[in-house]
Amino acid sequence: DPAEGRGGGKDRWMGTVRSLRARLRELKAQGRIEVGTYRRFYAQAKGGMFKSKAHLDQQLQTAGLLKEAAK
What we know:
4 helices, elongated
């Protein structure tokens, strides 16, 4: 498959999804999102709803689900 040579396909997908999941874990650990929010956005990330971490952050912000980092 030509796309494979350019790092496309499954490998790119895995990289994207793994970074999104890592970001969600990080936000949950910091207490910036609720567990329910984490689960919902985790499932949406699996479904391919977000194209990048920036997009994920933007959606959380827009939905008003991001809390200030616990100081």
